[in-house]
From TrEMBL:
One of its GO terms (biological process) is teichoic acid biosynthetic process. Catalyzes the conversion of GlcNAc-PP-undecaprenol into ManNAc-GlcNAc-PP-undecaprenol, the first committed lipid intermediate in the de novo synthesis of teichoic acid. It comes from Halalkalibacter okhensis. The lineage of its organism: Bacteria, Bacillati, Bacillota, Bacilli, Bacillales. This is N-acetylglucosaminyldiphosphoundecaprenol N-acetyl-beta-D-mannosaminyltransferase. Pfam families: Glyco_tran_WecG. GO terms for molecular function: N-acetylglucosaminyldiphosphoundecaprenol N-acetyl-beta-D-mannosaminyltransferase activity.
Amino acid sequence: MQKETILGVDVCPYNYKQLMQEVDRDIKEKKKSFCVAINPEKIMKAQDDPELKELLNKATYQIPDGIGVIVASKLTKGNITERITGVDLMLHLCTLAAEKGYKVFLYGAKPGVANMAKQELEKQYNGIQIVGTIDGYEKDDEKVVQAINRSGADILFVAKGSPTQELWILEHMNRVNASIYQGVGGSFDVISGQVKRAPRLFQKFGIEWLYRLLSEPKRVKRQLALPLFMIQVLKSIRR
């Protein structure tokens, strides 16, 4: 399926089912694939940061993580109809791993958080094989690479914040033996219960950003990216 380009940034039009089929095939064929979440904030940052834009476009799968991306696709007569959040993609991959026997490795977050996330995932997904965890404060990249490779992991989740986690993946995936790579931001914190996720009503309507803004008013400057993004999209349509 052909990717769409929104203000110079590629986005995949897959829904969850289609993406899981692609990922499952990649693992079976031992193909290395890199997933990155795309939202209006990242797209706006990429307008002034060519290196970030190049980084995002190097990913295998750019998931539409943001209601603004869905709206932009509709305005440009695209085919993106389903929002895929980073944390939900991680959970879908864990479902796939539990069903197919794929091995999972968790790398990143503060000390102890990855282990707590591992315990929660093992409660939620019967039979899931989480074969290793390393916190994000480990400075020896070679140690991390060797640990992942020894574990035999098929899926690697990296929680180091964006774009640090994506840069780490691109720099090291040629030496890591896993097939699927995803930067997951604060997902370990959410799964472990250290950070509360937005209520389901906010999730359903794609307005988790509003919940975060209400919870943390200091985020208002970051949320200004959404109206600026829509203005840029409308300008691009008129050209």
